[in-house]
Amino acid sequence: MPGYFTLRMQFGPHQDPDFVTEQLLELVRVAPVDEVMFFFFAEEQNDGHDTLERIQQWIDCSRPYRRALKEAGVETSLNPWHSVLHCGRHRTFKPGQKWTPMVGSKGAEEPPVVCFLDPDWQKYFFETLRMYAGEGFRVVWIDDDIRYHNHGDLHWGGCFCPLHVAEFNHRAHTNAAREEIVNACLQPGTPHPWREIWMEMWQETILSFLNDCRLILEKGNTKMGLMSSAMEAHGAEGRRWEEWWDVFGGGRPPVHRPHFWGYENALGTTLINAVAMLDQNRSIHPNEIESGPEIENFTYGQWRKSFRQIAAQMSVAHILGSTNLNISLFDFMGNWFDDEPERAVFLKNIRPNMDWLADTFPMTMKSVGVGVPWHQDMGRATHTTKGES
Predict the structure, then answer these.
(1) In degrees, to the nearest 5, what angle opens at C-alpha 176 toward C-alphas 170 and 179?
(2) How far apart, in whole angstroms, are the C-alpha atoms of residue 52 and residue 41?
(3) Structural domain harbouring 24
C-alpha cells in the first residue's frame, strides 16, 4: 500500500483562524498531505498544565481550519504537549493545581512535572481527553513523557513520590521508606525481590491509567497513539510491550510513533543508529500496527536539515517497515509557509518515491543477519555493579 504523509505543526489561539485556514488549504493544494497532526501548547507556547478554559480556547480557535482540512479530504490528529510534562523549565503549578509532583530516586522534585497516580490530576487529564474526543480527531497522541526515565533533574527518573511508595508497600506487604526501596531495587549483584515488585507496580498502574484514557477517546471514535522513546530506556524500566499494545489497541491495531533519527543534519556514520532503532521497534511490534516514526527537523527548514538528508530519513523509515511518516518541516510558532515555499514542493516531488518504497518494503518483511539477544525482562534481572542506576 502507498505511504502516508502526516505533517506536524501548531497554531495558537492568538492567530487568525481565517488566515491559518487559507495557508493550510494552499499547502495541501500543492503538497500530497494525508493528515495534519496539530500540537496544542507545544515548545515556547507551553507554560505548564493549561486550565480547561484555556484548552477550550485552543480547541475553538483551531476548529475552523480543522473543518476546512476535513472538507479537503485531509485527516487531522492531535498531540497535546502535556501529560505529566517532560521537565520543569521554571514553570510552576497554576493556582488550584495542588497535585503531587514527580519525585526522583534521590528525593528531588521537578514541579510542575506531576505524578500520574495523583487522582486529582487524573480527573483533570481525563477531562481534557473528553474535550478532545468530541472533535473528530483520527488519533490523539499520548506523549512520551508517560515514562519512567528522563524527567529533568530527577537523576535516573521517577516516580518515587509518597503515592508510589504507599502503593509499593501495599503490594510488598511492608512499610519501607523511599530510600529503602531505591537501595533494594539497585542492590549490586543478584536483584532484590523488591525490584520485580516495583517494576510490576509501575507497569500495572500506568497501564490501568492508560486503559482508562483509551476508553474515553474511543467514545469519540478516536484512536489513542503511543509516542515512545529509545528502546534501551524502556528496557531499563521493564516495559512489557505486548501489554502496552493490548492497552493502546483495545482489540484493534495499535498506533505507534517510535523514536528515530535526530533533529538536525548528522554525519552518515550515524545512520546505523537510526537503522538499529527502527529494527529494535520492529522486533517488538505486533503483526498489525500503524507505525510512523517522527521525521524530525528542529528548528525546522532545510537550513537545519537538508532536503537530501530528510529524504534519506524518510527512505530508511519505509525500508525498515513503516506504514506512516510523521514529518516535522513546519515550526510550532505558526510562521507562514510561504517563508520557505520549497518545503511543499519537496513533499510533492518525493511522494512517488515514498509510495514506491512503501509498496516494495511491506511490514511483513523481516531483517536478517547478525542480531543481539535481548529479552524485555532484562531490567528485572540485570545485575548492577555500583548500585547507582
Answers:
(1) 130
(2) 13
(3) 5-94+116-151+201-381
- C-alpha cell, 190: 543478584
Q: How far apart are CA 87 and CA 97, in angstroms?
A: 17
Residue 56 lies in a domain: yes
Each residue of 21-61: pLDDT tens digit?
A: 999 999 999 999 999 999 999 888 888 999 999 999 999 99
CB 239 within 8 A of CB 279: no
104: which 3 cell numbers? 526522583
Q: CA gyration radius for the chain?
A: 21
Backbone φ and ψ for 41, nearest 5 degrees, come out as 50, 50
Half-sphere exposure of 369 (CA within 13 A, CB side): 4
Q: What is the dihedral of CA 102, 107, 108, 114, to 10 degrees?
A: 10
Contact status, residue 133 vs residue 140, Cβ threshold 8 Å: yes
Per DSSP, helices labelled H in 155-260 are 162-172, 178-185, 193-218, 231-236, 241-249
Residues in CB range of 90: below 8 A, 6 or more apart = none
This prediction's pTM:
0.94
Q: Which letter, b or e, does each residue of 213-237 get, where b requires 16 or more Cβ atoms within 10 Å of its Cβ?
A: bbebbeebebbbbbbbbbbebbbbb
Q: Cis peptide before 111, with omega less than 30 degrees from 0?
A: no
Work out the number of other CB atoms within 10 angstroms of the CB of residue 192. Answer: 16
Query: Residue with C-alpha cell 503538497?
Result: 31
Residue 258 maps to which CATH number? 3.20.20.80
Is residue 177 a part of any domain in this protein? no
pLDDT tens-digit readout, 329-350: 988 888 888 788 899 999 999 9
C-alpha grid cell, residue 326: 510523521
- Answer yes or no: is 231 within a domain: yes
Instruction: Report whether 207 contacts 244 (CB < 8 A).
Output: yes
Provide the 8-state DSSP code for 376. T
Q: Say how many domains are in the chain.
A: 1
Instruction: Assess if residue 299 is contained within a domain.
Output: yes
Backbone angles phi, psi at 158, to 5 degrees: -150, 165
> 161: closest CA among 109, 199, 86?
109
Residues 6+ apart with CB under 8 A from 388: 186
